[in-house]
Amino acid sequence: MNIDLKIDRIKTLVARLERGETVSIRAISRVLTESQMETLSAEWEEEKSNRKVPKPASLKKYEALVKTAILLYGRGDRMCFEDAPAHKVKAMFHKADHAFELALEHLSEAIEADCSIRLWIDRDLKDASNHPIGIPRVIGSSSFECLSKQKVPFPVLTKRQLKIHALEDALFALEPKPNKSHEKSVNFSCPPRKMLNLEGFVF
Question: Are 61 and 106 in contact (CB under 8 A)?
């Protein structure tokens, strides 16, 4: 396959991928070198490995504390609808409030011990509140209130994106590069005005 044909083929494959169409590895292997294909394969394996980062143990405890607090809050809500005595409802909400505070205290201590844990939380602690909607959630939580469904605390790339990157890199290597123009400097043995003896004239 000559270079021009390969360039056109790569551009076509990139356009198809960007439109969301399926492009097989076999089709890509026809325009990439063996080395480029090995790089693409290695990047995909690394990407899959990165997605298996385990959740810190301190966050598992935090989730358990949040679950307890939400259950207590839910009981308080039900007691309101069941016309329970006001003092009992108040006591239940007080228990829930205390449970939320314990959860937030644990999270603050965990972040203080390891600042990277902050990346696993879906919102800033300053925006937290002692309420099922306002309590911070661990990213990827199935809870409706979770603000981030991302499973790991760093950007992930799809196989489609990696294919596009590999093809674009190959395209860049194949396309001709414009020549850099260099300005030629002229050196005078003496100043031009003096050479022409025009020093007394105004231009």
Answer: yes
Q: Locate the domains of the chain by residue range.
A: 3-51+156-174, 57-127
Contact 28, 167 (CB under 8 A): yes
What are the two backbone dihedrals, phi and then psi, of residue 121, each rounded to the nearest 5 degrees?
Answer: -105, 140
Give the residue among 74, 60, 58, 63 at the shortest CA–CA distance from 132: 74
Identify the sign of the CA torsion 163, 164, 169, 170. Answer: positive
Give the bridge partners for 121, in sequence order: 138
CA distance 37 to 39: 5
* Full pLDDT tens readout for the chain, 203 residues: 788 899 999 999 999 999 999 999 999 999 999 999 999 999 999 888 878 888 899 999 999 999 999 999 999 999 988 888 999 999 999 999 999 999 999 999 999 999 999 999 999 999 999 999 999 999 989 888 988 888 888 778 889 999 999 999 999 988 887 765 544 555 544 444 444 444 443 43
**pTM: predicted TM-score of the whole model, two decimal places:** 0.62
Rg of the Cα trace of the chain?
32
